[in-house]
């Protein structure tokens, strides 16, 4: 028997579970080698951060809005 679970914004949600200080803050998780966004919290989505968005193009914007970035590595 197998079970599959789909969790909204899984990687970002996991970070907020283990780091309660991040609740209510925009959180993104970046792909291997920090290339692009692969998971976003609800707060990050509200800022208009898109999936697959290259980090190097948005780095200043992330700093401006206090977006917390994590690497998937």
Automatic annotation (TrEMBL):
Q: What is its EC number?
A: 2.7.7.7
Q: Which GO terms describe its biological process?
A: DNA repair; error-prone translesion synthesis; SOS response
Its EC top class is: transferase
Q: Which GO terms describe its cellular component?
A: cytosol
Annotated organism of origin: Salmonella enterica I
What is the protein named? DNA polymerase V subunit UmuC
- What SUPFAM superfamilies does the entry give? DNA/RNA polymerases
Q: Which Pfam families match?
A: IMS
Q: Which GO terms describe its molecular function?
A: DNA-directed DNA polymerase activity
For this protein's source organism, the top of the classification is: Bacteria, Pseudomonadati, Pseudomonadota, Gammaproteobacteria, Enterobacterales
Q: Which UniProt keywords apply?
A: Nucleotidyltransferase, Transferase
Q: Boundaries of each UmuC domain copy? A: 2-73
